[in-house]
Amino acid sequence: MPPAGTSVVEHEVRVNAQPETVFPYFTDPAKMVEWMGVEATLDPRPGGISRIAVNPEAIMSGEFVEVVPPSRVVFTWGWEDKRFDTPPAASLVEVTLTPDAGGTLLRLTHRKLPEVALDFHRMGWEYYLARLGLAASGRDPGPDPWADAEAARRLLESS
Which CATH number fits domain 6-158: 3.20.20.140, 3.30.530.20, 3.30.750.24, 3.30.450.20? Predict the structure, then answer.
């Protein structure tokens, strides 16, 4: 059960690539920015930094909690600005990668999110996991409109 006043976002997607291929997209900065963000600093070991600039104004900051190649990665998550009452490292993201018929079943659970942040993170993970699926399967996810802070604001306001 989540802490009082917080909620959980869960997603499950199938990726057309093996877990060994998908896993680095959560731990390698160059692979991370193929699907999310314009810059990433990742030190994939317990206590190591996990910092992703989705755009110059939206910067996620946390740390790795658990790293089990190629099947599991857990990291804390929050925003360096006051976005959605989710300060750095305030929430927890768990990713499990399971082999599935020549591909990977990716399960993402984002815990300890304040209610006010729920819809934003649900929409964000849905959007970015689709981009990850394309990148990990060798396809180009194309330019990310959320990488531009002003364009991201307009997208959020229209949804």
Answer: 3.30.530.20
